[in-house]
Design a protein that fits this description.
With about 190 residues, the chain is mainly α. The chain has eight helices and five strands. The radius of gyration is 21 Å and the shape is globular. About 15% of the residues are buried. Keywords: NAD, One-carbon metabolism.
Length: about 190
C-alpha cells in the first residue's frame, strides 16, 4: 500500500483500510472493517478478491452477508485453489469466477506484469544493482518466464528450477531461448 495513494482515495470519500507496513493482525482488522464501511444496507453484492482472504472471512464468519451476493471473482492462483477446495467441501455459497485463468490475466499480467514489479521490488528492497548477479527462478510458468526475462533484461545470470520442465514443449523452450540466449544450455546443464 502506498499511503499517499490510500489517503487520496479516502479524501474522495471511499472507505480505505490499508497502510504501508501493516501487520497480519492489522491486515485482518482491515478486512473486517471493509465489511461495515459502506453506508448503504451493508449487504454485499459482489466480492472482487485478490488472494481469497475476504472470501474466506465472509464464508467462515459472516455467511449471512452472502444473501443477495451475486458471487466472487478471484484473480490469484492461491485464491482460486481456496475456491476449488471450498467447492469440493461443499462450503462455497455463491457462484465464483476464476479470473486468474483468463487469457488476458495469465498471458499478459502474469508474464509482463511481473517483469516490471520483480526488478522494482528487488531494487527497492536491496538497493543493489541486478546486472551481473546470479538468480534462481523457481518455476517456469508464465510468472517464471516473466521473471527470467526481467532478470535477463537487467543483465543478471539466472538458473531455472522447475519440477516439470520436461512438460514444456520444445517450441515453447525455443521461443524462450530467442528471448533469453543461453537458456537451452542452462536447462541442459541443470535439468
Amino acid at each position: 500500500t502506498q499511503d499517499h495513494a490510500a489517503a487520496a482515495i479516502a479524501a474522495a470519500g471511499v472507505p480505505v483500510f490499508a497502510w504501508k507496513g501493516e501487520t497480519e493482525e492489522e491486515y485482518n482488522w482491515c478486512l473486517e472493517q471493509q465489511l461495515t464501511a459502506f453506508k448503504d444496507d451493508g449487504k454485499l453484492n459482489l466480492i472482487l478478491d485478490d488472494g481469497g482472504d475476504l472470501t474466506a472471512l465472509v464464508h467462515s464468519k459472516y455467511p449471512e452477508m452472502l444473501k443477495g451476493c451475486y458471487g466472487v471473482s478471484e484473480e490469484t492462483t492461491t485464491g482460486v485453489h481456496h475456491l476449488y477446495k471450498m467447492l469440493r467441501e461443499g462450503k462455497l455459497l455463491v457462484p465464483s469466477i476464476n479470473v486468474n485463468d483468463a487469457v488476458t490475466k495469465s498471458k499478459f499480467d502474469n508474464l509482463y506484469g511481473c517483469r516490471e514489479s520483480l526488478i522494482d521490488g528487488i531494487k527497492r528492497a536491496t538497493d543493489v544493482m541486478v546486472a551481473g548477479k546470479i538468480a534462481v527462478v523457481a518455476g517456469f510458468g508464465d510468472v517464471g518466464k516473466g521473471c527470467a526475462m526481467a532478470l535477463h533484461g537487467m543483465g543478471a545470470r539466472f538458473k531455472v528450477a522447475d519440477l516439470s520442465l520436461a512438460a514444456f514443449g520444445r517450441k515453447e523452450i525455443e521461443l524462450a531461448e530467442n528471448e533469453m540466449p543461453g537458456l537451452m544450455q542452462t536447462r541442459a546443464k541443470y535439468a
